[in-house]
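Researcher: Re-running this chain for the archive, since the previous output was lost when a drive failed. Same request as before.
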Amino acid sequence: MDLTIKIWKKDNEYVAGCPELDIYTYGFDRQQARERLIKVILFYGETASDMGYKIDPGELIGRLDIPFTWRSESYVN
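Model: Regenerated structure tokens:
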């Protein structure tokens, strides 16, 4: 499974998401949002591995699609 990171600006912060795992984080800049997402993906992989799934957390990170997808979205409430 190839993984992608999509990052977009929402209000005054950035949201980073991995759609294939349905995981999202935020940060005050793109780099922070990306770093937080990678930590969560590693945790996801470690937890799945602890539960008996054959997942190598390091391999998940190695499968991130580069370059990252940068996009901007606006939300209307």
